[in-house]
């Protein structure tokens, strides 16, 4: 169940507040953020990835940051991504890299962002590490898919995929056009207009299951990113019914959430991957988590009182 729309809107607006984002970098991981963000440094994040690997959980690391408007900051973010790749390679952890292209300069210049992405993909390919381009708000959707196409088709990087959000009207068409591309399929976490996105949970859930089935039936590797037990059970039943191998898909969950469910899935022989964010630019990510589910507010309350 999502938050009531007025409260959800408040959190979504806070996520984009530049002044609060800037201040949050000085606060440290306050207000419960440390429960869903795996530390401020790469060293902290790698330690948490190692702990998760020991439990049988694969990971994807995300150096938090988005909506960058200065070239220097985008270059710093690119270097941070390269450092993550080196750390994954040197430590041998089972881990991918997730990134947002607005962090790499997408809002500055698309060709500049593409150059930064090529640098990252080249290193990742050499280390055989998969790169997941996170899908951001609707205004960046077309650019994201265009750059993905260039990377995969013109530059022959087969170690890169992206995310499709089920609440968008275009989701089914996008999944069909991306046959063979490893996709993470999600319900969607940004506030979007009804002209481009479904607004009610039942319709979003229906479309979510629809695009999952389409991508699986296309024989494409599929990451089902959901904490929704009902969705997960339906995917498991569909895979058995269609004789789809467990090697063709994985379940993904956010760091700090549904740990018992993750263990149960691993015990049943399913691959589970944790989305592990880290860094000082945590505020926007944390606000979106609060907007998604009323239960998440408990993180903030416990964090505020130091519990």
UniProtKB/TrEMBL annotation:
<dbReference type="GO" id="GO:0000166">
    <property type="term" value="F:nucleotide binding"/>
</dbReference>
<feature type="binding site">
    <location>
        <begin position="187"/>
        <end position="189"/>
    </location>
    <ligand>
        <name>FAD</name>
    </ligand>
</feature>
<feature type="binding site">
    <location>
        <position position="100"/>
    </location>
    <ligand>
        <name>substrate</name>
    </ligand>
</feature>
<keyword id="KW-0560">Oxidoreductase</keyword>
<dbReference type="InterPro" id="IPR029041">
    <property type="entry name" value="FAD-linked_oxidoreductase-like"/>
</dbReference>
<feature type="binding site">
    <location>
        <position position="288"/>
    </location>
    <ligand>
        <name>substrate</name>
    </ligand>
</feature>
<dbReference type="Pfam" id="PF01619">
    <property type="entry name" value="Pro_dh"/>
</dbReference>
<comment type="pathway">
    <text>Amino-acid degradation; L-proline degradation into L-glutamate; L-glutamate from L-proline: step 1/2.</text>
</comment>
<feature type="domain" description="Proline dehydrogenase">
    <location>
        <begin position="45"/>
        <end position="296"/>
    </location>
</feature>
<feature type="binding site">
    <location>
        <position position="201"/>
    </location>
    <ligand>
        <name>FAD</name>
    </ligand>
</feature>
<feature type="binding site">
    <location>
        <position position="135"/>
    </location>
    <ligand>
        <name>FAD</name>
    </ligand>
</feature>
<dbReference type="InterPro" id="IPR015659">
    <property type="entry name" value="Proline_oxidase"/>
</dbReference>
<dbReference type="InterPro" id="IPR008219">
    <property type="entry name" value="PRODH_bac_arc"/>
</dbReference>
<protein>
    <recommendedName>
        <fullName>proline dehydrogenase</fullName>
        <ecNumber>1.5.5.2</ecNumber>
    </recommendedName>
</protein>
<keyword id="KW-0285">Flavoprotein</keyword>
<keyword id="KW-0642">Proline metabolism</keyword>
<feature type="binding site">
    <location>
        <position position="165"/>
    </location>
    <ligand>
        <name>FAD</name>
    </ligand>
</feature>
<keyword id="KW-0547">Nucleotide-binding</keyword>
<dbReference type="GO" id="GO:0004657">
    <property type="term" value="F:proline dehydrogenase activity"/>
</dbReference>
<feature type="binding site">
    <location>
        <position position="289"/>
    </location>
    <ligand>
        <name>substrate</name>
    </ligand>
</feature>
<dbReference type="InterPro" id="IPR002872">
    <property type="entry name" value="Proline_DH_dom"/>
</dbReference>
<feature type="binding site">
    <location>
        <begin position="226"/>
        <end position="227"/>
    </location>
    <ligand>
        <name>FAD</name>
    </ligand>
</feature>
<dbReference type="GO" id="GO:0010133">
    <property type="term" value="P:L-proline catabolic process to L-glutamate"/>
</dbReference>
<keyword id="KW-0274">FAD</keyword>
């Amino acid at each position: 169940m999502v938050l009531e729309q007025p409260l959800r809107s408040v959190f979504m607006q806070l996520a984009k507040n530049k002044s609060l984002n800037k201040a949050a970098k000085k606060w440290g991981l306050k207000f419960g953020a440390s429960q869903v963000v795996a530390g401020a440094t790469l060293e902290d994040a790698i330690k948490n990835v190692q702990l998760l690997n020991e439990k049988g959980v694969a990971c994807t690391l995300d150096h938090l940051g988005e909506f960058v408007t200065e070239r220097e900051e985008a270059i710093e973010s690119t270097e941070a991504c390269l450092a993550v790749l080196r750390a994954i390679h040197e430590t041998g952890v089972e881990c991918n890299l997730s990134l947002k292209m607005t962090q790499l300069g997408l809002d500055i210049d698309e060709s500049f962002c593409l150059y930064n992405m090529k640098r990252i993909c080249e290193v990742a390919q050499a280390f055989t590490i998969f790169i997941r381009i996170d899908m951001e708000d609707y205004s960046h959707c077309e650019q994201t898919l265009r750059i993905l196409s260039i990377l995969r088709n013109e530059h022959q990087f087969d170690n890169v995929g992206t995310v499709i959000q089920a609440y968008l009207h275009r989701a089914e068409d996008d999944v069909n056009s991306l046959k063979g591309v490893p996709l993470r399929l999600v319900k969607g976490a940004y506030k979007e207009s009804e002209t481009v996105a479904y607004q009610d949970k039942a319709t979003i859930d229906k479309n979510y299951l629809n695009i999952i089935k389409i991508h699986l039936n296309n024989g494409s590797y599929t990451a089902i990113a959901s904490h929704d037990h009902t969705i997960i059970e339906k995917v498991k039943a569909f895979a058995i019914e269609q004789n789809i191998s467990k090697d063709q898909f994985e379940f993904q969950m956010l760091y700090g959430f549904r740990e018992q469910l993750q263990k149960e899935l691993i015990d049943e022989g399913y691959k589970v991957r944790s989305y592990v964010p880290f860094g000082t630019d945590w505020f926007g990510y944390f606000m979106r988590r609060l907007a998604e589910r009323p239960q998440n507010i408990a993180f903030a309350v416990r964090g505020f009182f130091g519990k």
